[in-house]
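hi! just following up on the protien thing from before. the input was this:
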Amino acid sequence: MVTNSPTPDPVRLARLREALLAAQYTADGCLDLLGPTAYAALARSETVPALRATRGGSPLETLVRLFLLQQPVPRAAAAAALSVEDCLADGWLTEDGDQVRATVDVRPYANEVAGLPSADAWVVSDLGCAVGGAGGIGAGDSSGGVARRDLVLGVGGASTTLANLAVRRSVRSVLDLGTGSGVQALHAARHAQHVTATDLNPRALQFARLTLALSGFENTRTAGGSLFEPVADERFDLIVSNPPFVISPGSRFVYRDGGMAGDDLCRSIVRGAAAHLEPGGYCQLLANWQHVKGEDWHERLAGWVAGTGLDAWVVQRQVQDIAEYAELWLRDGGDHLGRGADYRARYGEWLDAFEAAGVEGVGFGWITLRASGAAEPTVRIEEWPHPVEQPLGPHIEEWFARQDFLRAHDDAALLAARYVLAEEVVQEQVGAPGAEDPEHVILRHNRGMRRATKVDTVGAGFVGACDGSLAAGDIVDAIAHLLGEERVMLRDRVPESLRLLTEQGFVAPVAP
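and the predicted 3d structure came back as:
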């Protein structure tokens, strides 16, 4: 039996959802009330601007103070916004004299899925743990009598990053591995017939059930256990995971510390995914990986994927040195708020562990795997710290579709195909002021990964002529005639750059 969390009656739960909607306690409603400054401050664990903006006593202001800011409110004010009796009976509230307090954080959430309109939802988590980790607003040494290692966090930056990366096709089944408070399951429930949410922490499963039920979803189930154990031999069209990827000396917090040596937990998810993917299915996860002295990190990640039979696209977004990494997660755990000697001792433990393993830095990024069934899977591992378009999920799906096209077309077939210039591709010319000809021609894509690539005169002319009306080989022949070059030699040269332009999305093949 999981304690310290509400256990709602379904009928009363529906009444609570209706009350939240009636008061406009939604993501849009809170933004309108608080304004962008106070709303943004909440994401930094700062509550003062929001407290100043909620002094009027309206039902919405009362709910913001109660559930978002975790302040006691007069029982009479709460009764004007929701059924206090229902919430006391189910454990959402507790009495404090003539006031009531929330027992959990109930945070409005815009449940957005690419291609669908935004939908109102709510994420339920432990008090103080919507943002800021175990060291968040008011967490202290415990939250409502709950051991800090078992705390369940709400929506954070990693949650929204993964939600924006996920491929959002209409599918039969989705697995949310390591669901936490259920954020990824919320999104998946909108485009899947059935969602399975798993977690090692029983409290997390309870909070995920609350999140999904309060948000009105019934096409979900939860299962307890580590990694793929709860789903045995089941297969899914999509697996998403924001796992406890932190590489730490020990396992102090279930929500973040993997409990395995180094980056083995993330490697285990990659290695195990193939056995649980339907043909054509995707597995997408956030991960940390070690940069080990004398080892190329590209080769380390390639080793994770080798032998799985899966296509893979690994993107490293950031690298931190071991001191910076340790400091980040010590702050997350609230260690910087404790005694200086304890903080220094814990800091030393992190550095000792990294030095013993030869770790010089830690990479963070995302991994997308796909069960394409290809005899020779495509594996791309790259570093891309630059801004990208969000949501990126549709562009990720398009990237894998382009790999299928490139795999199926030899050089002759590439030249026989027709292409169109992708939307929002621009050309930049770089050269000395007043020069007759540019030194470089740059193609820049303002969608998706927002890549840029240098092309020569032939490449620039080719891309400019891609309107879908002519085969690539015919365009090359025309350019050869204009430039006075040998047609056969140019046809031999172009396919290599055409593959790059197609793979990076500057041009798209036209369906025959």
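The longest strand covers residues 277-292.
Residues 248 and 257 are 6 Å apart (CA to CA).
cheers
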